[in-house]
């Protein structure tokens, strides 16, 4: 729970209920500056004083006092800002979300209350948001003001977010940035603590937001640091890892599944040559498990695309092609029939071929090689060749049949997620729905 204590403009202090009587003031606000603060009685007044000197009436300042035990709240009340109090400390992420809930601007800008960030860059961020969806003030200079342990963690987390999720800006963990309020709300953020920045960056990259990178000089903080290197570092790492299944299922599932599948396939080919039963069984299991993991990855990826958490890639564009379900189903049926027919021929007693009764199909394939190597006659070859072929080819044929069965079920399973999506990831409408939309557009334009 939170309480809004006071609302100030530069000219008149107003209570929340009174503010509703002045729609022109509210409508003129375009940028909401949100300052989450926990025990920042020393740094907060410095930050607010700097902000007040550079902004105009298109800005509002919101201070979210996150259960501070010092004079943070009373300090904030001395300045032209809106103060929102949490009864207890709930974390930076929760404080930011509370601020956004109360923000009236179409853009929300965040800055820490410890005076480590150059306040004047707020104006650059506001200008950037005219053309961009998300503006990031990257800490390119002044890293010596970050504790050594935290610098190492920042480097690891920063590069993880950039290379795993494709985040474009240099510093996804900065405490000074801004974005459209509508995008912030669509992200449905869950982080309550310092993992909030990494979650925003991951989701911004996955949503394909247009990002502006603004280099800044990072300064020395005022007051005591609140970030715990180990505890909060763990939370940030957990945030980065926990978003992999939905926001980069290609790396989390599809590629590992593909590697297992190819490893199993190669293993089966070696098994046919070396007839090592243990290696053959392991290879068959790798093949089937890899296929299942890849299928799960495709389902996760398509779900993310359908809910606008992610964008299409080469794998999903292939999967979303028209008629792909029936193509995969047909391939699965062919694989099952091939396994059944080949197995039936292989395990039948005798097969007549080319008018010569008693000659087996597998015998024809291997008779020449065995005859040369062992000086055997065709009569001696028959039981040797057939027994060897049966023992060697049984496992690959069984794996082929099971894979075909999995392919059929997977095609049906994935069709649930791909229904209504085009190969580009956009939603497809039925003709009746298109007609309704066209009718509504005519009514509105008329």
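^ Assign residues to that structure.
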């Amino acid at each position: 729970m939170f309480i809004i204590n006071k609302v100030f403009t530069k000219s008149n202090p107003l209570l929340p209920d009174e503010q509703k009587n002045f729609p022109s003031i509210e409508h003129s606000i375009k940028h909401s500056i949100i300052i989450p603060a926990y025990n920042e009685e020393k740094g907060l007044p410095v930050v607010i004083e700097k902000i007040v000197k550079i902004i105009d009436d298109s800005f509002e300042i919101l201070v979210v006092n996150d259960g501070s035990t010092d004079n943070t709240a009373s300090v904030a009340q001395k300045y032209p800002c809106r103060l929102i109090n949490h009864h207890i400390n709930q974390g930076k992420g929760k404080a930011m979300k509370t601020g956004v809930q109360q923000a009236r601007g179409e853009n929300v800008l965040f800055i820490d209350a410890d005076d480590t960030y150059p306040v004047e860059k707020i104006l650059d961020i506001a200008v950037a948001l005219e053309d961009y969806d998300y503006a990031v003030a990257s800490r390119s200079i002044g890293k010596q003001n970050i504790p050594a342990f935290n610098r190492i963690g920042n480097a690891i987390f920063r590069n993880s977010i950039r290379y795993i999720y494709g985040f474009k800006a240099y510093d996804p963990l900065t405490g000074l940035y801004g974005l459209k309020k509508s995008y912030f709300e669509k992200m449905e953020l869950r982080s309550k603590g310092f993992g909030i920045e990494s979650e925003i960056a991951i989701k911004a990259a996955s949503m394909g937001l247009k990002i502006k990178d603004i280099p800044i000089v990072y300064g020395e903080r005022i007051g005591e640091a609140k970030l715990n290197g180990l505890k909060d570092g763990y939370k940030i790492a957990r945030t980065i890892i926990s978003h992999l299944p939905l926001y980069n299922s290609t790396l989390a599932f599809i590629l590992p599944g593909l590697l297992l599948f190819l490893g199993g396939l190669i293993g089966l080919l070696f098994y046919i040559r070396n007839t090592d039963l243990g290696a053959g069984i392991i290879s068959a299991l790798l093949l089937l498990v890899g296929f299942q993991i890849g299928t799960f990855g495709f389902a996760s990826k398509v779900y993310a695309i359908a809910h606008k958490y992610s964008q299409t890639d080469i794998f999903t564009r292939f999967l979303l092609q028209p008629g792909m379900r029936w193509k995969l189903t047909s391939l699965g049926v062919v694989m099952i029939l091939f396994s059944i027919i080949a197995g039936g021929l292989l395990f039948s007693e005798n097969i007549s071929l080319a008018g010569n009764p008693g000659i087996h199909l597998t015998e024809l394939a291997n008779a020449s090689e065995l005859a040369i190597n062992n000086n055997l006659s065709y009569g001696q070859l028959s039981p040797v060749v057939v027994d060897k072929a049966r023992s060697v080819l049984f496992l690959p044929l069984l794996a082929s049949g099971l894979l075909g069965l999995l392919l059929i079920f997977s095609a049906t399973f994935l069709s649930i997620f791909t229904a209504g999506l085009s190969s580009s990831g956009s939603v497809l409408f039925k003709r009746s729905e298109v007609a309704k939309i066209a009718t509504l557009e005519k009514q509105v334009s008329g």
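The chain has two domains: 2-242, 249-433.
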